[in-house]
Amino acid sequence: MIQLDRARKSYVVDGRETVAVDDVSFDVRRGEILAIVGHSGAGKSTLARLINGLETVTSGHVWVDGVDIAGLPERRVRVVRRGTGMIFQQFNLFSSRTAAGNVAYPLRSAGWPKAKRDARVAELLDFVGLLDRAHAYPDQLSGGQKQRIGIARALATNPAILLADEATSALDPTTTADVLTLLRRVNREFGTTIVVITHELD
Ligand SMILES: Nc1ncnc2c1ncn2[C@@H]1O[C@H](COP(=O)(O)OP(=O)(O)OP(=O)(O)O)[C@@H](O)[C@H]1O
Ligand SMILES: [Mg+2]
Q1: Is the pLDDT of residue 73 over 90?
Q2: I need a labelling partner for 176 at 20 to 30 A (CA). Which of 37, 121, 141, 146 fits?
């Protein structure tokens, strides 16, 4: 499903080169969960951006579902990106939109008609256990609830891959466990291939 072959990414800033991802190779099969652990600055977020096509490798290859995304035209990278959901440490919810509005956002972008969108939003909110909070705004939700909305939003268009970049780093241990249990359910029930990035070894 995801294959990295000697993937390397370096940035040149003011003539100085930083190698963020240095010859990384691995293989994640469909339906697997891979955890990537590394200290701050190790290149984890850069690696995530290489997988979802937000960045391109300096050398090497990144295959997603059989397609080498290095060197693909932007139009085709966008298709790959649509097949990849992402959740973040700071949740990145739109503060001016309700929980339902956040989950509906990617469906709206993908051109889903309103009735179909509403039904899908309800289904997703129910899946993450927050149907009763549909009309709450992010600042009225706890951290764990915000991340569950983040997960619902990331899953909206049914992506084959979910990337979780430090998705539990802002949460307490109990809430972290709840979110990880939810991710395991996503993997089991939808067969989603999941990459979990963390600096927490446990
Ligand atoms: N857009 C960029 N331009 C220049 N350098 C960058 C850029 N993005 C990342 N880097 C550098 O690449 C290295 C890896 O950064 P990255 O954000 O991938 O690390 P990380 O493992 O996600 O760290 P953290 O655990 O703190 O989130 C760092 O040295 C960083 O300064
Ligand atoms: Mg990071």
Answers
A1: no
A2: 121
